[in-house]
């Protein structure tokens, strides 16, 4: 340590000594008319004085100085001398006292008030405080009066190399792509030194790598880390630890140093192709596997990671490209082979596929390394399975005439067992699709027969399901839909499309169309309906009406003459024969009712009955109906009014409403119950047999006729209401003819002459000990436990 301090002092003072020696002689002496000048020894101050020597001739102060210097971290047995203050007013008589004030005066710096020597009494650290500003003044020793104005000066703490470099942001982490070229920049680091960067080389740093070579290098001054080897492979080594050193004093010996670590991770690039783990894969699959089922997985390994390892799989060749497909699983990075179409063991028993795996993301920088893909062969063996029967057609369409005979064959379905064993097939009808059981099927040959008659007009289509079941394995079944269309035959005669009623005006003209009718036929001929109309043979020469066939397959009825009179004949019936064009043709007779009516001059029907002649002139049927409705409504209102009047409640006692003494006020208060013995006479509930042996019923009107009482005069308002109520209560109690009649129901005693005997145990003369409960065991298992409890009780009593 002493050698190091001596070296630092030598580095500090050597420039000052050389400069001091080379200065002109005029700098060392002052003119005769000026005070001695005290300089602190700063090389900068000396340079300033050498460049401006004229300052000595213009000085107006008693002393001249600018700044002093003191070394940091200096520690010795005695305070270190910083400098000395002196004035030309001091003749050496010791009548002048020097005073020091400012930063650290008295605590860090101490002045000899007689000689003006300034000492540092504490160890200084430039990194804590680099300079101190103080004020010096010369005063009279006795009076303390200032002899000169105060002067300010600065004491600078000179730096020494006492702080090692530090990496404040370490340790560091950085990444660089693998396979990078030589000199690729990785990152840069920065160290700081608390020493003075201006003075000396204490803060001049030089960087170097202590550990991490030969993979990485560092710029000594900029601290930029670069790759020192080309084509570093992540798959060989992914992470590197680099130890970096920063040394001050320009890297020379004696300088302080600090270290940090840098972790360099090589990031992945797509520099490796996928590679199948094996060149041949074997899979087996049953022939009845469901479409879309995964048959197997193949995987091509890739040393890269992330998206650089993603591969897509394809089937590029083979005899099963139409039956199989392969998809890529992004999570597992493998290929899944699935079934696209059904397999048939009897047709082909094995397939060979050529599968390729190729990288999805290819880096063109490494395309020269070869194709980033690989291929493998996949052999798939189809296993035989017990398959259900196969129908010759996926659906069947059968046709049958609606007049087909029962048990006639409608059609046939066929099915076979595709397995090599070829089990016999049994056919049946799913009765859920043929609830009416209209069809049957031969279980052996699949012929469908008619079981019940058909009617096309009720149902044209019948959809049933045929089931084919293997006899050797009943679990192997197949279903096929069969649609049966019922063909039409001419089995329905035509008839009027609706119930027609024609109206003929009395003032009609000959040849006037009375009614146009149309016919309908439930059958559905291929060429459509065509109807023929005619009158009955005996009515061909009908004197009143004739018919005319229209082009739209309808019929018009015309009047032959005029002058129809409804008083002579009100209604005419005209039978019409309607025939269809079927083979054989069918016909029916429909009767048209023609009613003679009275019409207006423009042909509007007004009345069609004879009674209309007695109606008042100008009063139509609608007006009569309205009048009748009004009369009925009035009668209903009158009846309702009378009914409400009869059901209106009247008071029982007809008195003046203002006489409150006769008003009845009802209180819905409950009684006191059985414990309230003062509310009524308890003797009425006792058995009357103990009194006279018979209790007459009082719920009928007695035969005794009570003389009517004389009417009482109205009571003045001053009479006591309580007295009035008591009087009326006494009269009511003594009048048996006054309603309501008393009806006493006795529940406190039992009836006489009961065949069943007493059901109460209150007056029972027997005790539990006299009872025998053995009969409970004969009542069945439900009373067994109860009988055991009672039998145990009796045995305990005997014990």
TrEMBL record:
SMART domains referenced in this protein's UniProt entry, alphabetically: CA
Q: Which PROSITE patterns match?
A: CADHERIN_1, CADHERIN_2
Record-annotated Cadherin domain positions: 87-167, 168-276, 277-391, 392-496, 496-618
Q: How does it sit in the membrane?
A: Single-pass type I membrane protein
Query: Where does this polypeptide localize?
Result: Cell membrane
Protein origin, superkingdom: Eukaryota
Entries under SUPFAM superfamilies matching the protein? Cadherin-like (SSF49313)
- The keyword Cell membrane is assigned to this record: yes
What are the alphabetically sorted keywords of the record? Calcium, Cell adhesion, Cell membrane, Membrane, Repeat, Signal, Transmembrane, Transmembrane helix
Membrane spanning stretches: 613-642
**Region forming the signal peptide:** 1-29
Under InterPro entries, the record lists: Cadherin, Cadherin-like_dom, Cadherin-like_sf, Cadherin_CS, Cadherin_Y-type_LIR, Catenin-bd_sf
Keyword Cytoplasm (UniProt):
no
Q: Name one Pfam family in it.
A: Cadherin
Q: Say what the protein does.
A: Cadherins are calcium-dependent cell adhesion proteins.
What PANTHER family does the annotation carry? Answer: CADHERIN-23, CADHERIN-8
- This chain's protein is named Cadherin domain-containing protein
- Provide the organism lineage as a comma list: Eukaryota, Metazoa, Chordata, Craniata, Vertebrata
């Amino acid at each position: 340590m002493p050698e190091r301090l001596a070296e630092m002092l030598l580095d500090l003072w050597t420039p000052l000594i050389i400069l001091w020696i080379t200065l002109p002689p005029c700098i060392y002496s002052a003119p005769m008319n000026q005070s001695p000048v005290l300089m602190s020894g700063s090389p900068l101050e000396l340079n300033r004085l050498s460049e401006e020597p004229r300052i000595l001739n213009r000085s107006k102060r008693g002393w001249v100085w600018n700044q002093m210097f003191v070394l940091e971290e200096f520690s010795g047995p005695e305070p270190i001398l910083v400098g000395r203050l002196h004035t030309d007013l001091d003749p050496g008589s010791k009548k002048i006292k020097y005073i020091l004030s400012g930063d650290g005066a008295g605590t860090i710096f101490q002045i000899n008030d007689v000689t003006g020597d300034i000492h540092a009494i504490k160890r200084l650290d430039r990194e804590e405080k680099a300079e101190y500003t103080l004020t010096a003044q010369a005063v009279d020793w006795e009076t303390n009066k200032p002899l000169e104005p105060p002067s300010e000066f600065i004491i600078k703490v000179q730096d020494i190399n006492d702080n090692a470099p530090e990496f404040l942001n370490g340790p560091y982490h950085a990444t660089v792509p693998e396979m990078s070229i030589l000199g690729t920049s990785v990152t840069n680091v920065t160290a700081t030194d608390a020493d003075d960067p201006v003075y000396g080389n204490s803060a001049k740093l030089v960087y170097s790598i202590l550990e991490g070579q030969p993979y990485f290098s560092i710029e000594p001054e900029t601290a930029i880390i670069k790759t020192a080897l080309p084509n570093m492979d992540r798959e060989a080594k992914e992470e590197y630890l680099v130890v970096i050193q920063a040394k001050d004093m320009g890297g020379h010996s004696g300088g302080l140093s600090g270290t940090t670590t840098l972790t360099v991770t090589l990031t992945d690039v797509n520099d490796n192709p996928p590679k199948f783990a094996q060149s041949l894969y074997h899979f087996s699959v049953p022939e009845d596997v469901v479409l879309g089922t995964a048959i197997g997985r193949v995987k091509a390994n890739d040393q890269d990671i992330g998206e650089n390892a993603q591969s897509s799989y394809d089937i590029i060749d083979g005899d099963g490209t139409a039956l199989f497909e392969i998809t890529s699983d992004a999570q597992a990075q493998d290929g899944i082979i699935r079934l696209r179409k059904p397999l048939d063991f009897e047709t082909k028993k094995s397939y060979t596929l050529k599968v390729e795996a190729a990288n999805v993301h290819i880096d063109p920088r490494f395309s020269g390394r070869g194709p980033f893909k690989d291929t493998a062969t996949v052999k798939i063996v189809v296993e035989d399975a017990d398959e259900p029967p196969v129908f010759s057609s996926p659906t069947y369409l059968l046709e049958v005439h609606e007049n087909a005979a029962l048990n006639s064959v409608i059609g046939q379905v066929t099915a076979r067992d595709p397995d090599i064993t070829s089990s016999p097939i049994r056919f049946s009808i799913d009765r859920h699709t043929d609830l009416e059981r209209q069809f049957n099927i031969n279980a052996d040959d699949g012929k469908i027969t008619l079981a019940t008659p058909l009617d096309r007009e009720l149902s044209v289509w019948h959809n049933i399901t045929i089931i084919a079941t293997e006899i050797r394995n009943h679990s192997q079944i197949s279903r096929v839909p069969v649609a049966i269309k019922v063909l039409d035959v001419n089995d329905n005669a035509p008839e009027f499309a609706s119930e027609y009623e024609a109206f003929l005006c009395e003032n009609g003209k000959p040849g006037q169309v009375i009614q146009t009718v149309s016919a309908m036929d439930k059958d559905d001929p291929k060429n459509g309906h065509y109807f023929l109309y005619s009158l009955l043979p005996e009515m061909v020469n009908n004197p009143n009406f004739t018919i005319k066939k229209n082009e739209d397959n309808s019929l018009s009825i015309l009047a032959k003459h005029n002058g129809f009179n409804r008083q002579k004949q009100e209604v005419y019936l005209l039978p019409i024969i309607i025939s269809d064009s079927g083979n054989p043709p069918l016909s029916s007779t429909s009767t048209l009712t023609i009613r003679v009516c009275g019409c207006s001059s423009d042909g509007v029907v007004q009345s069609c009955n004879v009674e209309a002649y007695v109606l008042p002139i100008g009063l139509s049927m609608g007006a009569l109906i309205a009048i009748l409705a009004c009369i009925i409504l009035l009668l209903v209102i009158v009846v309702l009014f009378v009914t409400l009047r009869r059901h209106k409640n009247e008071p029982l006692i007809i008195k003046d409403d203002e006489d409150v003494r006769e008003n009845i006020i009802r209180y819905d208060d409950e009684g006191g119950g059985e414990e309230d013995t003062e509310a009524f006479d308890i003797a009425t509930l006792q058995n009357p047999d103990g009194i006279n042996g018979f209790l007459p019923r009082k719920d009928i009107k007695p035969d005794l006729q009570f003389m009517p009482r004389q009417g009482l005069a109205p009571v003045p308002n001053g009479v006591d209401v309580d007295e009035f109520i008591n009087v009326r209560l006494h009269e009511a109690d003594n009048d048996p003819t006054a309603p309501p009649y008393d009806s006493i129901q006795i529940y406190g005693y039992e009836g006489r002459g009961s065949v069943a005997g007493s059901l109460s145990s209150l007056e029972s003369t027997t005790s539990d000990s006299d009872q025998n409960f053995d009969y409970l065991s004969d009542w069945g298992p439900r009373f067994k436990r109860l009988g055991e409890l009672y039998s145990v009780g009796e045995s305990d009593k005997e014990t």
